[in-house]
Amino acid sequence: MQVLAATIINHSHREFLIYTLSIFSLQRIVQHHLSRPTLAGFVDLQGLSQLRVALNHYLASSRSVRCNPNRIIITNGAQQALTIAMLATFTSKDTLLMENPGYRQMTKVAELFGFNIDSANVVAEHGLQLDKLLNRKCKEST
After folding, report:
1. Beta partners for 127?
2. Predicted confidence band at 54 (pLDDT cuts at 50, 70, 90)?
């Protein structure tokens, strides 16, 4: 057994756990995980093809939405989906109009990527105040 060791620090859940492994143990862990198709990069980045086809059929039959399974992306949750949509749609020079109060995590993502943020207030019993939206000059699509 080799004397060399590797130290792994786990930062999850605000706990710092330190593991010291022999190189042999570390090699076994790496080999195990590299045999998994997801980690080895042998899966479709858009998500499992069969799931996208099933979602396509569901959307067509229950929601009357016509789409192509190749245009569906499976994400790990709403925030990842919204982030992908934001990055695909906007540039860092764009200004996002977001409801206030709104989804705070989305504001954090927009700030992280350097988007300008303007807010549209939500007033009780009146809803979203669209005056800012109606008085803005919109970006032309290309």
Report:
1. 123
2. very high
